[in-house]
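Exercise 7. Given the encoded structure of a 394-residue chain, write a plausible sequence.
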């Protein structure tokens, strides 16, 4: 950068000047030649001087620029950086600048999950905000599914809980059978009834069972009677009628009373008998039931009483004057004390159960209705009611 030193040019000049004037004629230049040489040297020097000056100017301007830029930079402070970070084992790190305010992000390889923050920031004091995270194996047990002190055992895509004594269930969520019998618990007074019929304790739980002839409803605790009579197979012998009862069925064959010389009955429907017309002069015949009908009822045990079980009404034929008075009564059967028969309106009487019934049992009660026209006896009708009481309250 600095122009070459002109010392190489000065040396011949000094030799020329050193030449003594007396010997100038031979080896030394004459005056004219000397002046020419000096002028040439002067021009050389001038050229050198110009190039020197240009070099210095360039150097000065560069220094000035440097000075300017240094002066413009803020107050002197060493750049702050945070310690280098590594990617967590089984994971990756994004970001390689550890200067203030720079962030570094972390992810985990497939099959692992990040425990800790997903990013860290370099703070002005040269420390990282946040703890460096690590990657943990994603396992079925990592959600800690086992409760109550159960131990999680890793399987293929599933886990198994080893339960401590007294605990059971897939997550040890249930008390084991030895500990609590739900059925016993709910048998106590004031508790809601767990099952309509039988409560069966199971490990950690319970289920309801229904007696034979009943099915368990969708709620898991109610029992519903099975109607055997609608089964496609015939359940009753030919000639008999199937009556569904609580938990079972009965085969019945209603029979008309035996006839005698003056009186005879004919079956007009499976459940009805009618008396043939009486001889003109036979008064006793006219007092025998004109119709006998058969009725079958199925009841649960322990029905709340009083309760009306059966109604009986007159049916006068069209065009004929009907009875203007009716009388009702219980005329037979094996259980009179349980029932009363009373008139409920002008046309109707009803059979009322007044005593609680407990099954299993079968009761029979015969009720009759006598028709009067202007106080004169007209006819009498009998209903034979058979009641099947189931052993259960349902
Ligand atoms: C650095 O700064 C943060 C927040 O300003 C602070 O919580 C932390 O204690 C500091 N660390 C040190 C070593 O000074
Ligand atoms: C049957 O009829 C005869 C007369 O035909 C009569 O004497 C008798 O009392 C009647 N018996 C009954 C049970 O009605």
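Solution.
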């Amino acid at each position: 950068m600095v122009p070459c030193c002109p010392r190489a040019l000065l040396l011949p000049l000094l030799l020329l000047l050193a030449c003594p004037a007396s010997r100038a004629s031979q080896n030394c230049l004459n005056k004219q030649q000397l002046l020419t040489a000096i002028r040439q040297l002067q021009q050389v020097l001038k050229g050198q001087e110009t190039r020197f000056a240009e070099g210095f100017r360039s150097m000065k301007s560069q220094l000035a620029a440097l000075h300017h830029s240094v002066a413009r930079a803020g107050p002197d402070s060493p750049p702050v950086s945070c310690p280098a970070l590594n990617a967590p084992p089984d994971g990756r790190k994004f970001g390689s600048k550890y200067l203030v305010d720079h962030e570094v992000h972390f992810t985990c390889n497939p099959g692992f999950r990040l425990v800790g923050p997903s990013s860290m920031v370099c703070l002005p004091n040269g420390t990282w905000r946040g703890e460096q995270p690590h990657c943990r194996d994603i396992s079925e047990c990592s959600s800690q599914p086992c409760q109550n002190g159960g131990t999680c055992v890793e399987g293929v895509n599933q886990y198994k809980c080893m339960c401590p004594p007294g605990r059971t269930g897939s997550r040890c969520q249930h008390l084991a059978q030895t500990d609590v019998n739900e059925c016993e618990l709910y048998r106590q007074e004031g508790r809601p009834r767990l099952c309509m019929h039988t409560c069966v304790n199971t490990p950690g739980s319970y289920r309801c069972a229904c007696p034979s002839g009943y099915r368990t409803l969708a709620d898991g605790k109610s029992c519903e009677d099975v109607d055997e009579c609608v089964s496609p197979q015939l359940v009753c012998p030919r000639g008999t009628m199937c009556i569904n009862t609580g938990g079972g069925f009965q085969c019945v064959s209603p029979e008309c009373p035996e006839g005698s010389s003056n009186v005879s009955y004919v079956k007009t429907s499976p459940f009805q008998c009618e008396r043939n017309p009486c001889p003109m002069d036979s008064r006793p015949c006219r007092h025998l039931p004109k119709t006998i009908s058969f009725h079958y009822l199925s009841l649960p045990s322990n029905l709340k009483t009083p309760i009306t079980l059966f109604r009986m009404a007159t049916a006068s034929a069209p065009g004929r004057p009907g009875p203007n008075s009716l009388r009702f009564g219980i005329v037979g059967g094996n259980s009179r004390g349980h029932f009363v028969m009373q008139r409920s309106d002008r046309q109707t009487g009803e059979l009322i159960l007044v005593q609680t019934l407990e099954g299993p049992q079968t009761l029979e009660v015969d009720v009759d209705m006598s028709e009067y026209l202007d106080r004169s006896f007209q006819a009498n009708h009998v209903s034979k009611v058979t009641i099947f009481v189931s052993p259960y309250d349902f």
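Remark. The pocket of 2-acetamido-2-deoxy-beta-D-glucopyranose (ligand 2) is lined by residues 261-262, 279, 282, 284-285 (CB under 6 Å). Students should compare their own answers with the one above.
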